[in-house]
Amino acid sequence: MTDMNTPGGIDPTTMTSFALWQQLKFTVNRFEIRAGGKQGPMVALAQQKRLALKEEVSFYADEAQTQKLFGFRSRSVMDLAATYDITDGQGQQIGWFKKDFGASMLRSTWLMGVPHQQLEGRGQERNQAVALLRRFADISWPIHFDFKASNDAELLSVSRGWGIRDAYDCQLPVAPNGARLDWRVAACLAVACDVLMAR
Fold first, then answer.
1. Which of 70, 93, 98, 124 has the fewest CB atoms inside 10 Å of its own CB, making it the most exposed?
2. Distance CA 149, CA 177 (A)
3. Segment 153-173, tens digit of pLDDT
4. Residue 89: how many CB atoms within 10 A of its CB?
């Protein structure tokens, strides 16, 4: 059974919002996750190695990367329609997601599930025009992803404004089961929206 307690005493299903900040490094992509917004406390640091055969992002509690909190990893190598498993610090699955390859031809679209919350949903870029424009001009367009449950209830919104440095505002409204989407799953989806956007 998945341990629902995370370091810092944060209940995974009660976080209402967080900010995601990208830090560009030479060999890795790094992201800071800050609870409540960009001025809030850092609750996780994500790192993605570039040019890896299997796409993988790990989230740590500290800069020294001594404590892994959670992460996601593709099940297959170099697959445009790969499924990604989201696991906790002990390697137990807490969720999954995959790209809807057909729908993503026009705008990036994701399918996702969180078994321990009995949630499944779909995420998609809100603005069709921006989705098409960024395929021809790779600049930091403002983008917005909406993730919704099968009954159309909103689970997560991920938005990025204009700017050189990628910064996202992530909101987690109350889910259909009365709780909020597990913030660890939300953080993985938010990072995936950035690093896998062009795939």
1. 93
2. 11
3. 899 999 987 765 678 999 999
4. 19
State residue 179's pLDDT score: 78
Three-class SS of residue 104?
helix
Q: How many Å apart are CA 102 and CA 161, to the nearest integer?
A: 26
* Torsion angles phi and psi, residue 110, rounded to 5: -125, 145
In CATH, the architecture of 16-195 is Alpha-Beta Barrel (3.20)
Task: Reply yes or no on whether the pLDDT at 72 is more than 90.
Answer: yes
What would the DSSP string read from start to end of the chain? -----BGGGB-TTT--EEEEEEEE-SSEEEEEEEETSTTS-EEEEEEEETT-SS-EEEEESSTT--SEEEEEEESSSS-TT-EEEEEETTS-EEEEEEE-TTGGGTS-EEEEEEGGGTEEEEEEES-HHHHHHTTTS-S---EEEEEEETTS-EEEEEEE-S-SS-EEEEE-PBPTTSSB--HHHHHHHHHHHHHTTT-
pLDDT score for 187: 96
- Distance, CA of 94 to CA of 195 (rounded, Å): 20
pLDDT at 186 over 90: yes
How many residues would you count in the chain? 199
Distance in angstroms (rounded) separating the CA atoms of residues 102 and 109: 9
Query: pLDDT at position 150, please?
Result: 86
Q: Which residue has the tokens 């449950």?
A: 149
